[in-house]
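We give its fold:
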Amino acid sequence: MSLPIALVVVAALLAATVLAGVLLRGRDGRAVTVRGDRHVDPADLMRPLGAHATLVQFSTEFCARCPQVRRMLGSVAAEREGVVHAEVDLTSRSDLATRYKVLSTPTTFIVDPEGRIRSRFTGVPTRAAVLSALDGADDLQEASA
């Protein structure tokens, strides 16, 4: 292979890698509204669901970003009445990763009092995004009542 062709191939691979990284980074931490009737079993959380919502965080022992998500979700739960934070360590419960289709950590679900998954975050969500999703879950709850 000639040098100019090799440089073009390397440049194309570099551009494709940068583009993929930008696209994946853009999706990190964004809320995805969950449609349908997907539920979380409270027995999997080893705690009761919150009266208004439960922030379910899936993490692992080796997740570098999970502690910051844990602190943020814990403070949101402490500020909001009826909201609890539950953390599931997939290191010891890999069966739940399959059941809930968790492919990376941290992954966070916002679950209503009946156990329905209302929102899903992959990556590190912002505090504002979590609060907005909680408010949206409240709106959905009122509409179905």
Residues 26 and 111 are 24 Å apart (CA to CA). The mean pLDDT is 86.
